[in-house]
Design goal:
The chain has about 80 residues and is of the alpha+beta class. It has one domain. The protein contains three helices and three strands. α1 packs across α2 and α2 crosses α3. It is globular.
């Protein structure tokens, strides 16, 4: 099992294109990369991605994720 952010990174890396959080969660659940008991895993993932970016910014570390639209995320390494 992966954390939601690790699963999102793996899925985005494989897709090679930005995806909406709902699509990321669906793929992660279909591939059994994550387990979730919550009713809104898409919202949880969106918050997790924002928090990871905040933590990495505070540490001066390179960001992995970039928000490219409403609920849609990509990888900074694609720039």
């Amino acid at each position: 099992m992966y954390s939601k952010t690790e699963a999102a990174y793996k899925i985005l890396k494989e897709s090679k294109k930005p995806l909406h959080v709902a699509d990321i969660i669906k793929i992660a659940l279909d591939k059994k990369l994550i387990k979730t008991k919550g009713k809104t895993p898409e919202s949880t993932l969106a918050v997790d991605l924002l928090l990871e970016n905040r933590r990495r910014t505070e540490k001066g570390a390179k960001l992995r994720f970039v928000k490219v639209g409403s609920g849609t995320w990509g990888l900074t390494e694609w720039k």
